What we know:
about 85% helix; single chain; mainly alpha
Amino acid sequence: MAVKSLQDLFHETLKDIYYVEKKLVRALPKMAKNAESPELREAIEAHLTETEGQVERLEQIFEIVEKRAQAKKCEAMDGILREADEVLSEVEDGATDAAIIASAQTVEHYEIARYGTLASWARQLGMDEAAELFDETLTEEKEADQKLSALAERTSNQQAAAA
Length: 163
Ligand SMILES: [Fe+2]
């Protein structure tokens, strides 16, 4: 479709992030299964529950803008997950968690970028209710990212101690 206005761009980006979240609901259980440390597994499982809530929040926003909830293929997300699989197949035991954390943080950063943009566009378009819903998710994504950073630090300390 031709994107003629900020409104159109908003709608296209909403479909993009909807694809990302739905895809992540399917990808996270695999990441959790591959995690070596119980802390990382629990963090990923907690974010899965959160992500399911984020999908619902997006469906609420589709309702607010009176559009059908529809996903649009996101090449960036597909690329990130493809690369995550590749790294995971190459990595040796002991570095698995570091690889999973790196991939998960890449996804989080993509989402943080998207939600920041969407919240700002929603405000510009006068959709305050939608903007608040984006902000709620944005806060969760930032917290998930910080939790992963803390886990990454612990993982690298443990590996340094074991070496
Ligand atoms: Fe998310």
